[in-house]
Design a protein that fits this description.
Helices cover 51% and strands 4% of the residues. By secondary structure, it is mainly alpha-helical. Strand 3 and strand 4 form a beta hairpin.
Length: 310
């Protein structure tokens, strides 16, 4: 904050020159006499001048707190970090003679943030988790949940004998299902450095050991994402939802892959709403084969009595 003139305060005059021109400097937390320059108080509490903010940027500038605690960083974001900028707390450039010392401080700060093997494991795993989540476009709550699952696995010593990438991928897959943002095993495998089979095996082991209660994914969970990727309207989306609701009543969805059923419902809805997409286009987005869509589509139209003109 810029310097602000002091009004009626408990300290009304300078004890040195008896001047009434006192200034609060919120950046340094000091109360200064404007006439003689005496620092009256060097631990001045910022009472907050004006808290009105008209946009997000203003709000961030006036916030007094740092970033919130997060489980996606190995130390939960609570440790300090020496910035790479060669500037001091006042924004002045650090002299060249002191830069070697600052470089050493920065290096040791980085080292002491990761003090033991467990923290080193967490630091690598959580950076890998963040990379995968970014590649898959997953929201913040899924990342936090996945980080929590991974930390539980570390505490129960489930990592031993397994690759870090495999456990991270399994944690992310479990978090997606827990948060209602399902992704298929193939999608997770494409973003990670391990195979689909290893992720599935690790996921089953972790759910058993950590007693994670995860409901099976439903075809309805995939409708919104698939329609969005196919650039279909809300009308198609709601029609596909209706088809799936009728199919669930007649027990046509049980025992079948949710992505295949969802893809078939979208294909039928796109034809009914005159926004036709080919079976190949739908299959590519859903990650299933055209044969699967054909089988499910014939089954749904026949059992639900839907008449469509191809």
């Amino acid at each position: 904050m810029p310097k602000q003139r002091e009004g009626m305060d408990e300290i009304e005059r300078c004890p040195e020159c008896n001047s009434a021109h006192l200034v609060r400097d919120y950046e340094r937390g000091e109360l200064i006499c404007e006439d003689c320059g005496l620092v009256i108080d060097d631990q001045f509490i910022d009472q907050g001048p004006e808290w009105r903010a008209f946009d997000v940027e203003q709000g961030e500038k006036r916030a007094r707190t740092g970033a919130p605690m997060t489980y996606t960083i190995h130390d939960k974001g609570l440790s300090t970090e020496i910035s790479w900028k060669n500037k001091d707390s006042y924004g002045k450039s650090i002299p060249t003679r002191n830069r070697a010392q600052l470089y050493r401080l920065r290096k040791w700060q980085r080292r002491i943030r990761v003090s033991n093997a467990t923290e080193r494991n967490l630091a690598f795993a959580l950076s890998e988790l963040d990379r995968m989540a970014s590649a898959m476009g997953l929201p913040r709550n899924v990342r936090e949940t996945a980080a929590m699952i991974y930390r539980k696995a570390v505490n129960k010593n489930l990592i031993r004998g397994r690759s870090i990438e495999g456990v991270v991928a399994a944690s992310l897959y479990a978090a997606c299902r827990q948060c209602g943002v399902p992704r298929t095993l193939d999608e997770v495998a494409n973003s990670s450095r391990v195979g689909r089979k290893e992720i599935g095996r690790t996921y089953r082991f972790m759910t058993r050991e950590l007693k994670l209660k995860l409901m099976p994914t439903k075809p309805q969970d995939y409708i919104q994402r698939f329609c969005s990727e196919l650039k279909l309207s809300g009308e198609v989306q709601s029609k596909a939802g209706e088809i799936l609701k009728d199919a669930a009543k007649k027990e046509l969805t049980s025992g079948r892959g949710p992505t295949g059923v969802a893809a078939a419902a979208i294909y039928i809805a796109s034809i009914l709403c005159n926004e036709r997409r080919t079976q190949r286009e739908v299959a590519d987005v859903a990650g299933v084969t055209e044969v699967t869509i054909r089988n499910r589509y014939k089954e749904l139209t026949e059992k639900l009595g839907i008449d469509i003109q191809l």
